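target protein:
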Amino acid sequence: MPYVKRRRYGFDLRSTALFFVFLAVGVSVLGLAARVAAGAVERRPAWVFVLVVTGVALCLGLRRRMRVAGVARRAAAALDEAAREAAEQLDAPAVPRQRTSVEVAVDYDALTPEEFEEAIAALCERDGCSAVEVVGGAGDLGADVVAATPDGRRIVIQCKHYGASHRVGSQDLQRFGGTCFTVHEADVAVLVSTSDFTAPAMEYAEQCGIVCVDRETLEAWTAGTGSQPWEAVLGGGAAGWETAGAEF
C-alpha cells in the first residue's frame, strides 16, 4: 500500500483573533441597534405602530401590483386577440345576400278568401316584412293585410280571391283607393288578385299609385322568381307592374 503524506494544519492565532474581533464588533452593533430601538419604543411607541403598518401596506401593495400587472397582461393579450379577429373579419370579403329562387307550388284556387289572405301575409313575412297582420273582415275598410316593408314603409294590401273569369274592375280599385292612403296611411298600397284586372281598373291604379298584382305576377312572387310588390314603388311607380309579370 503506497504511502500518502498527509498535510498537518497548525493553529493560526492571527486569523482566530481577527474572527473574534469581528464577532465582537457585530454583537456590539446589534446590541446598540437593539438599545436604540428599545429607546425609540419607550419615547415614541406610535412610531413603531406606524412603521409596522407601513411595512405591511408596502408588502400588500407590492403583492397587489403584481396581481394587477398579471391581470393587465392577460387583458392586453385578450384585447390583442380580439383586435386580430376583428381585423380578419374586416378583411374578409363581404358576401352579398341574394334572394333564393325557390319553386313553390300553391293552389290558390283551392283556398278560401280567408286562407288567401293568410297566404299573402305569409309571403310578406317570408320576404322580410315585419309586424305582419291579417286584418281583413267586416269593417276592414279595404285593408286585408298590413305590414312594414324591410325598409320600414307601411304596406297595405287588399286581397281579391276571384275566379279566372272574374276580373278586378275599376269599382274595386276605387273603393280601395278611397281608404288605403287616407284611412290606413299606406306608403305602399297593393291589390293582389287570383285573376286579372280590367283596363279601366289599371288606369285608375296608375293614377292613384296602387300596385296591382295579377295571377301571373302573384305566382312569380310566390315562386321567388319575381319582385316583391313594394319594390315596384321604388322602381319608379306602380304603372305597368301588373302586366310585366315575372320579367321586371
Observations:
- Residues 14-90 form one domain.
- The mean pLDDT is 76.
- The chain has two domains: 14-90, 108-244.
- The first helix runs from residue 13 to 43.
